[in-house]
Amino acid sequence: MNNKTTNTLNHWYTLDLKVILEGIFVGLLSGIIIVLYRLCLSNADKIRKNIYSFITPNVGYRVIWFAFLILVGLFLGWLVKKYPMIKGSGIPQIKGFLVRQLNINWLKELILKFFGGILSIGCGLSLGREGPSVQMGATVGLGFSRVFKRLHLEEKYLVTAGASAGLATAFNAPLAGVIFSLEELHRNFSPVILMCAMGASITADFISSNFFGLTPIFDFTNLSVLPLKYYGLIILLGIVAAILGCVFNKLLVLASTYIDGNSKIHYLLKPIIPLVLSGIIAFTIPDILGGGHDLIVSLTGSNMLLRIICILFVSKLLFTVICYGSGVPGGIFLPVLVLGALIGKGFGQVCVDLIGIDSTYILNFITLAMGAYFTAIVKAPITGSILVTEMTGSFNHLLPLITICLVAQIVTDILNSGAIYDILLERLLKNKKGNWLKNATDEKVILEVPVMFGSEIEHKKIKNITWPNNCLVVGIKRGEKELIPNGEYKIYAGDFLIVLADSDVAHTLKPELLDMSTV
Are 87 and 328 in contact (CB under 8 A)? Predict the structure, then answer.
């Protein structure tokens, strides 16, 4: 057994406590950086609103402002062309890195994502802070790993911890940050990832809370408990949100294809399209500018005409897909939640008018539709449920949230709609836009593979299973015990297989092993 294999195995068996402590430190650094990012975005938002208040009555100043937007667009076009890994939310790039398909220049991309996001979101584009926050947190974890020369085995946990801390800081949602790392980034449960991400998320949230307070992002103080007799309406709302979520995914892919992926449009001009559009929108429908936090808050107040809700929804949807489709730095979480809130507002008002339900429950439908729409687009129902719960600060609606997110997940599965970040990652890899890992190495990695009830390898001996090439089962976690197996060991549901593999083929082995261990 060569030295790298020995080092990897020795490192694995002393990893648990170490990654928790390192995750806490990564969470501390990520929390500070993302707090600074949020403060800069908040100030940029105030400055933009003051500028529009000042230039509205003066046409001459409007011309100067549009010239400024064009200059920003030219700069962003040059920036994302030179550094394509800072495009969009950055979450597909992190997923690509974790499956060993993309490389990350952590320091450059951390700095450029920070300032690129401030420029694009600060100028009013319909983009969110959470995607860039996740990517920046992940690059902090990667930077820690590279500076202190950690093995690749440890590196992926630190990157995941940083990503969790980024989401936790962006939305004051530590639990959602942890669940996101398990459900979206890794798509499986791992105790090591859980502990590392939890340490990072809690630490980052502590930093964030010291700056922004303990108040939830959306303080829905008048949220009543929805009666069980209205659960039929929840199912209907979940279906509506799921269908509209599928529409969003298709439009986002189309916008990315015909703007960012269009070679006929010069790369310097692509960001100018949404930026100039944002200037026009500022004088027509200013409510849809930016991420949309204020718009969600406004929906919780007085009644709004249904046609106004429809206009806001269509305008926000189209503006969001154009902004993201141009390739500028920025996420979609917050705009997606805004669109979900608009769906819930319209649905609730229709129920009040046609069925005569109490108008106080409109706020419930707003909250539930946010989770359902998020689930329909990202295909992460647990993250959607927990995220909306933490953002609204009330656990009274957790049961209906889980219900509606499950409905949205089922409907999108029936409609064969994929998860948006998986779709975007496939496009990224297909178009080869990013920093590719060109050379194979002899680095070894450890893969954790959970065994599910009813899988094809359950109750089989290790020697009787046809394993993929280039991997070796070196351990089994069974409850609190870690076993060193031989060929006679039987595998049971609930086991975690510890598999040693070459790093350059790990991204293909993991899905193959998961297929064997699931139903």
Answer: yes
Q: Which of 23, 24, 12, 41 is nearest to 292 (CA)?
A: 41
Check residue 504 and give its pLDDT. Answer: 64
Count the alpha carbons within 13 Å of 442 in the hemisphere toward its beta carbon. 7
What stretches of 356-431 adopt beta strand conformation (E)?
none
Mean per-residue pLDDT, 198-217? 90
β-sheet with 481-483: strand ranges across = 444-450, 496-502, 471-478, 481-483
> What predicted TM-score, i.e. pTM, was given to this entire model?
0.85
Give the pLDDT confidence score for residue 38 in this predicted structure. Answer: 95
The answer to whether residue 7 scores a pLDDT higher than 80 is no
Location of structure tokens 């550094």? 83
Task: Say whether pLDDT at 438 is over 60.
Answer: no
Q: Is the dihedral of CA 348, 352, 355, 358 positive or negative?
A: positive
With H, G, I as helix, E, B as strand and everything else as coil, classify residue 501. strand
- Distance from first CA to last CA of the chain, Å, rounded? 34
Looking at the DSSP bridge assignments, the partners of residue 477 are 482, 496
Among 54, 7, 35, 84, which residue's Cα sits nearest to residue 428?
Answer: 84
CB 37 within 8 A of CB 171: no
| pLDDT the model gives residue 2 | 54
Q: Which residues of 353-369 are buried (b: 16+ CB within 10 A; e: fewer)?
A: eeeebeeebbbbbbbbb
Q: Is the pLDDT of residue 223 over 80?
A: no
Q: Residue written as tokens 């609930």?
A: 494
- Which token pair is 119? 């420029």
Helices 106-122/59-82 angle, 10° precision: 160
CATH architecture of the region 228-265+284-431:
Orthogonal Bundle (1.10)
Query: Which fold is adopted by the domain 15-212?
Result: Clc chloride channel (1.10.3080)
130-182 tens-digit pLDDT: 889 999 999 999 999 999 887 776 888 899 999 999 999 999 899 999 999 88
- Is the dihedral angle over the CA atoms 382, 383, 385, 390 positive or is it negative? positive
Distances (CA, A) of 469 to 2, 207, 404, 511: 18, 45, 42, 13
Q: How many residues does the chain have?
A: 519
As given in the structure block, the two tokens for residue 127 are 């983009």
- Higher pLDDT: 14 or 292? It is 292
Cα torsion at 277, 283, 284, 290 (round to 10°)?
Answer: 60
DSSP codes, 300-311: TSS---HHHHHH
Average pLDDT over residues 221-249: 90
- What are the extents of the domains in the chain? 15-212, 228-265+284-431, 444-517
| Whole-angstrom distance, CA of residue 430 vs CA of residue 432 | 5
Question: Which CATH number fits the domain 444-517, given the four candidates 3.40.47.10, 3.90.1150.10, 3.30.70.1450, 1.10.10.10?
Answer: 3.30.70.1450
In this structure, are residues 140 and 26 in contact, taking their beta carbons and an 8 Å threshold?
yes
